[in-house]
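Morning. Coffee machine broken again, so started the prediction first thing and wrote up yesterday's gels while waiting. Chain of 331 residues, entered below exactly as on the submission form.
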Amino acid sequence: MNDSAEPPLTANGYPVDTAPDRFGEFSPANDLLADPEALRERMAADGHLFFRRLIDPEIVTDARIEVLTKYAILGEVDDRFPITDAIAGDRHAVATANVRAFSESVRNGRCYRRITDGPEILGVQAALLEGDVRIFDMRWPRFVRPGEGCGFHCDGPYMNRGTSRIFSAWVPLGDVRRSDGALMLLERSHASERLHAGYLRADADRDGLQWLDDDPSVVQAEYGGRWLTTDFEAGDVLVFGMHTLHGALDNHSAVGRCRLSSDSRYQRADEPADPRWNGADFEGHGGRRVFYPGLGRWNNEDFQDEWKDIDEHGRMILRTDVDTDHGEEQP
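Came back before lunch.
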């Protein structure tokens, strides 16, 4: 399907200032792949590493087809169009499906795991961590419908019950243009003394964290720096640390395309791991819940923007005190 002219960029409904001193592009680090020390130095300086086509695009396409086919079963993808177009459907089966089983199926798919557990990302992680690497047992495949986005946050407070030496890998499962809801991060925010003095000392569950903020201009006023993003292509990989402030642009696809991406986390194998996301029966954010982002906006109160309550049959229980300016009340 063909996209029309791109609309103005927004994040959580707020306009994004794209002036050159406020907004910029990721600089690829592919030239450093053969130099582990240079990778570590760039990560220490910038808080992130961006790679163009680190993974064979055909491998990404296989994962995209595998994941979107499962979403199509729930009606999340309109199967009147090619599955790979990821055009939003009517979600007719979401309310009655066992979404716990669905979520487990998606994140354990063979083609999807070839992305998160593949040698391309593991090689970068091993260079950064200087040792044997383990991937978190939880993996976060993310489906972002038109009109949806993500509030601004750092990963540290959500992952810090083991070691703090953890890196996230964000992988677009297909091309993701800015207007389709690309990830954005705040330049050199990992070095912010203000973040380290307060927010980054928190534990998300213990302290009941919501999004740090949802307005990109407010975040810039607080912490400085440019917002960085790009038009991602299949095979691209973005790696960043636990202290890098990030979020996403809103999905304004002119053709109703859903954004498909993956988050996965990596640490040294010989360091303690956060039990929320690791182990045979990892707890996540506790209770009877499943990772199923979107379908409304609650400022991530009690993690509801991303984690949904389910009943004993795995069916979703969607809370109704939703911000209807940003989302819908029912699946």
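Residues 12-317 form a domain with the Jelly Rolls fold (CATH 2.60.120.620). Going to sketch it on the whiteboard this afternoon.
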